[in-house]
Amino acid sequence: MASKYVSLQNLKFTLNRVHQAHEMSHYEYFKDYDEDAINMMIDAAKQFSDTYLFPFYEDMDRNEPELEDGVVKVHHSVKPLLEAMAEGGYIGAGAPAEYGGMQMPSALSVALGFIMSAANNGAMGFSGLTAGAANLILTFAKEEYKEKYIPNMFAGKWQGTMVLTEPQAGSSLSDITTTAKPIGDGKYRLTGQKIFISGGDYDAVENIIHLVLARVEGAPKGTKGISLFIVPKYRIEENGDFTFNDVTPAGIYHKLGQKGTPAMHLMFGENDDCEGYLVGEENKGLSYMFQLMNEARILVGLGGCAIASAAYYASLEYANERPQGRRLNDKDPDQPQTLIVNHPDVKRMLLLQKSIVEGGFSLVAECAKYWDYTRVLEGEEKEKYELLLEILTPVVKTYPSEMGIVSVSNGLQVLGGSGFCKDFPLENYYRDIRIYPLYEGTTGIQSMDLLGRKVTMKQGKAVKYLFAEVNKDIEAAKTYPELSKYVKILEEKLQVLQSVTMKLIGIAMKGNIELFLSDANLYMEFFGTIAVAWQWLKQATTAKQILLTENPQGEDLKFYESKIHTMKFFFAYEVPKTLGLAQRLMDDEVLTIATEREVAV
Amino acid sequence: MKILVCISHVPDTTTKIKFEGNGDTLDKSGVTFVINPYCEYGLSRAIGFREEGKNVSITALSVGGPEVEPTLRKALAIGADDAVRISAHPNDSALVARQIYNYVEGKEFSVIFTGKESIDFNGSMVPGMLAEYLGWSFVSFATHMEMTGEESAVLHREVDGGYEVVEARLPIVVSCQKGISEWRIPNMRGIMAARKKPLAVVSPSEEVADTLSTIKFDYPPAKEACTYIEPDNAARLVDELVSKGLI
Ligand SMILES: Cc1cc2nc3c(=O)[nH]c(=O)nc-3n(C[C@H](O)[C@H](O)[C@H](O)COP(=O)(O)OP(=O)(O)OC[C@H]3O[C@@H](n4cnc5c(N)ncnc54)[C@H](O)[C@@H]3O)c2cc1C
Questions:
Q1: What pairs with residue B173 in β-bridges?
Q2: What is the pTM of this model?
Q3: Digit-coded pLDDT (tens) for A173-215
Q4: Is A535 in the same domain as A584?
Q5: What's the CATH number where A209 sits?
Q6: 3-state secondary structure of A40
């Protein structure tokens, strides 16, 4: 198996130099997180991943969990992993110190998550879900529930889940029918079934704490009648004893990838004995859940570029070892074969991968920093970062997911036939990454969220803030003549994006929302490419500044030069694709809206 | 009980080694430096004593410039109580041993752990020299260590084909080998705590002078290309081996 799955140098560069993550330490809440702390934690997370995650990646895929006699047995590495995660302080890292957390800035936690997900993305699902669920309880639930559930969740003994999807309610959560009947004392009795619940049941933890969306009897229809409940698999009695809470596994899904994490079909209250405890107020459940989902969406984007990172290093290693054919200008059969890395087409595939991995991660880090600002700022400044986060969340979920697949696919292609075989990890990465554009809201849903809600919210205020951020970085890039060509391209593309947006909003204003959103997916692709081009220009500006002022040598020199080269590649090979997208988005011909005279489908 | 753990600051084992200048200096660009893995066994064993309920204080020490401080911080994150950097260039083993000796004198340490060797220069000399300067017991290549009282310890040493059990009087210098403990990964809380633990910088003692200087490093000869011989051509195999003087 390939040995390298991540570049710590790139993570430290992106965090410390491009995004100046250590600036967060100027705020009291994050005061301990200066550059030294950041670097040490990155190194420690790598060591952790080398020990508890990477060695089990292949085996977890080959030995997927099964549901036998009502019990889901997961891979033997999961229990020690969760214990070590807890001991290492990873599960509660982002939570406030008063609840046993470490108040870690998200900008750092995404870097640690990147390393761990690149090492073994499926295994990271367990602790990620627990951290998210615990965070929801900490933010919205009663003190009593925090005390009851959080310590064991952070200790890795109890698993947290997010329980939304039902057979008839996937993308459309307004159609949820699981019901909750009040039985007094803030308690409810739940009945219903849920599908695809990750970590929904398994044997390596003592209890499972489900955060369930359900409808209180008599609640209004649609999204305004959905409430959020804590539903443990085992109720915890006054004396600490466990009582089974009537949550039963009805089935386990056999998936294409991420096989180590069980996705469960669960029945709630088959024997009318399933208690749930209301989080916050009735009918506000979906807005609470969206807090978790917004975080989760950033983490999905993170996972996408992390898998693509592992795939990139595996294919790079192969390309540097595999001799095949000769350079096109030197076809002498007496000469030894050249390494495939020397073929321009292979180099193109590797550069494409690198540009997606490192550009995608830079966008994730940018969003994580905004997220941190929303936690320490107040008033208008806080609103600014909230809006920036709002507009970029669907993009940061989607670009690394969709383009991560392209990236891994190119990685697989680099290995030729070997890429398709189980002797190499590429086929595994390819299967694992395929889920990312699906869960946490499909690309279709994210795209409509971007164009239909985020771009227009508060009279376009979020877009204005975003353009201001991009323009700030464009100004910084203008310092260096070598970057002027790319500055100009980005400025032009921003203008085209504006024209396309205005044209589409024009359609919305005429009231035809279906037409307005019919090509939202293409709009997302355009937006995402520009967002990553922005991140590449930002990285290249930082690299240029370091090259001119710090005189790096040897491998360091190569690293910074490669940053500028990869930026050029992205602008030359990826950014021009927006031309075609813009052309389609500006075209009035309607081909995908259902009509009576259906032609194609 | 006071324990000193000597920490060598070395390139990560996965580093591709390159030299610069006239081939006398390591090209450090892009190289990650770590705690020498054998020293880390010593650190881990010292922490083990604390976990067994012994009242120990653990000092991590390294001879080197400011670049070794992150490595010492890591030792603090793993569990050392304080750290000392002797600000001298660790050019040769005699100098390092002498600097450590000067620091240790009069400080009442009972145990000094070192690695069996450092993975960069593989000298394996500092612990023996240090024990000699101090006039202490010395056990090399230790794979196991238990205290048998305030004044003595039982250790296992790796020897060819097995191990030797020895009893030794404290104070003692122990050079550590795989088996004496398991490495530990610093946890997040440990890293935070490490930032508040003391790291003292000590000036080198004047009288110590370098005894060696490096003229040049060189790579091992490149591996020759593989020669494939058809399975039914034993004669050619014999010819090849004869021509290389191997048979
Ligand atoms: C491995 C795995 C793990 C999962 N984990 C969890 C979990 O832990 N908790 C949980 O609650 N759920 C989980 N899910 C469920 C997941 O979130 C849903 O599968 C997802 O939201 C899509 O819903 P669906 O499968 O019902 O597809 P559908 O909603 O039926 O969508 C099918 C297609 O139609 C499109 N579509 C749907 N509605 C619209 C629309 N209005 N406009 C345009 N296009 C539309 C979609 O984009 C998609 O392409 C998981 C799923 C999987 C596969």
A1: B112, B138
A2: 0.92
A3: 999 999 999 999 889 999 999 999 999 999 999 999 999 999 9
A4: yes
A5: 2.40.110.20
A6: helix
By C-alpha distance, the chain B residue nearest A10 is: B30
- Check pLDDT > 80 for residue B29: no
- Give residue limits of the domains in chain B: 2-219
Q: Which residues span the domain enclosing A588?
A: 442-601
Task: Give the mean pLDDT of B206-217.
Answer: 75
Question: A143 with A177, same domain?
Answer: no
* Confidence at A547, pLDDT banded by 50, 70, 90: very high
**Same domain? A251 vs A111:** no
To 10 degrees, what angle do helices A106-140 and A143-154 make?
140
Q: Do B31 and A102 touch (CB under 8 A)?
A: no
Band (pLDDT 50/70/90 cuts) for residue A509 is: very high
Segment B139-164 mean pLDDT:
94
| A280 and A177 inside one domain | yes
**Nearest ligand 1 atom, CA A161:** 8
Total number of domains in chain A: 3
User: Among the three residues A123, A153, A183, which one is the final residue of a domain in this structure?
Assistant: A153
- Whether residue B185 lies within 8 A of chain A, CB to CB, comes out as yes
In a domain, A333, yes or no: no
* pLDDT, average across residues A435-443: 97
What Rg value do the Cα atoms of chain B yield, rounded? 22
A332 assigned to some structural domain: no
- pLDDT-derived band of residue A411, with 50, 70 and 90 as boundaries? very high
Residues A145 and A165 in one domain: no
Whether A308 and A408 have beta carbons less than 8 Å apart is answered as yes
In single-letter form, the type of residue at position A135 comes to N
**Residues in CB range of A286: below 8 A, 6 or more apart:** A173, A213, A223, A226, A228
Tell me, yes or no, if A144 is annotated catalytic: no
Count CB-CB contacts under 10 A for residue B220. Answer: 5
What stretch of H or E contains B26?
strand B25-26
Lowest mean pLDDT among A108-117, A133-142, A481-490, B211-220: B211-220
As a whole number of angstroms, the distance between CA B169 and CA B111 comes to: 10
Cα(B117)–Cα(A277) distance, rounded to whole angstroms?
59
Q: What chain A residue is nearest to B73 in terms of C-alpha separation?
A: A40
Q: Is the pLDDT higher at A559 or at B89?
A: A559
Q: Do A555 and B187 touch (CB under 8 A)?
A: no
Crossing angle, helix A379-414 and helix A285-319, to 10 degrees?
40
| C-alpha closest to that of B75 among B15, B29, B33 | B33
Express each pLDDT in A338-396 by its tens digit.
Answer: 999 999 999 999 999 999 999 999 999 999 999 999 999 999 999 999 999 999 999 99
d(CA A316, CA A325): 18
Q: Are residues A579 and A459 in the same domain?
A: yes
pLDDT in tens, A207-266: 999 999 999 999 999 999 999 999 999 999 999 999 999 999 999 999 999 999 999 999
Say whether pLDDT at B207 is over 80. Answer: no
- The C-alpha atoms of residue A224 and residue A221 are separated, in whole angstroms, by 7
How far apart, in whole angstroms, are the C-alpha atoms of residue B30 and residue A557?
9
Cβ distance A40 to B27 less than 8 Å, yes or no, reads no
Q: Within a domain: residue A170? A: yes
Q: Where are the alpha helices (DSSP H) in A457-510?
A: 457-477, 484-509
- DSSP, collapsed to helix, strand or coil, labels residue A194 as strand
Domain B2-219 belongs to what topology? Answer: Rossmann fold (3.40.50)
Q: Say which of B31, B189, B194 has its CB closest to residue A89.
A: B189
Q: Whose CA is nearest to atom 35 of ligand 1?
A: A444
- The number of helices, as runs of H, and strands, as runs of E, in chain B is 6, 13
At CA A306, angle to CA A304 and CA A308, rounded to 5?
A: 70
Burial pattern A31-47, b for ≥16 Cβ within 10 A else e, equals ebbbbebbbbbbbbbbb
